[in-house]
Specification:
By secondary structure, this protein is mainly α. About 75% of the residues lie in helices and about 0% in strands. It has 8 helices and no strands. The N and C termini lie far apart (about 50 Å). The mean pLDDT is about 95.
Length: about 160
């Protein structure tokens, strides 16, 4: 057993594994949003739930926004999963999640908490984690196992 390599891995991680981590996060996050968006677009019950949520939080033009938000999730998630226009998809989905946090999640946060406990509850929201993943993917790029990477490598300027 090479203890030095094990300690170094524990302290620094492995740059060799990074492309696989980016691939895993990008594909699974993309699939999650593609499936979620597809369900809201093509399954009447899910679309109705989305519409009712938007009506309850008084979003303007709730029917139009139901289709728009669901379409952003479906198209953005699909593009992210295959690694095409990944940064643009992440930006659109990031805005989608920020709006969801501001319109539906903050209003149901527990009242009367200390700032520390409120922040803990806020960070527990899955939408916050999605925002962090999108920021990470925008900054790191879609990884070498993506159509974006392939296209960038084959562009002739």
């Amino acid at each position: 057993m090479d203890w030095k390599r094990l300690v170094e891995f524990a302290l620094r991680g492995s740059i060799d594994l990074q492309p696989y981590a980016v691939l895993l996060v990008r594909v699974l996050l993309g699939l999650f949003f593609a499936i979620s968006g597809a369900n809201k677009l093509f399954v009447a019950g899910r679309r109705q739930t989305m519409y009712q949520t938007l009506v309850e939080v008084k979003v303007p033009c709730p029917l139009l926004m139901t289709y728009f938000v669901s379409g952003v999730e479906f198209v953005g998630g699909s593009l992210l999963a295959i690694g095409l226009l990944s940064s643009l998809s992440c930006a659109a989905l990031l805005v989608d999640m920020l709006v969801a946090i501001m319109t539906t999640k903050l209003s149901v946060m527990p009242k009367g908490l200390s700032p520390f406990n409120w922040f803990d509850s806020f960070l527990y929201l899955p939408e916050v984690l999605y925002v962090l993943f999108f920021i990470w993917l925008i900054c790191s790029g879609p990884g070498k196992f993506s159509l974006d990477s392939w296209l960038a490598g084959n562009l002739r300027w």
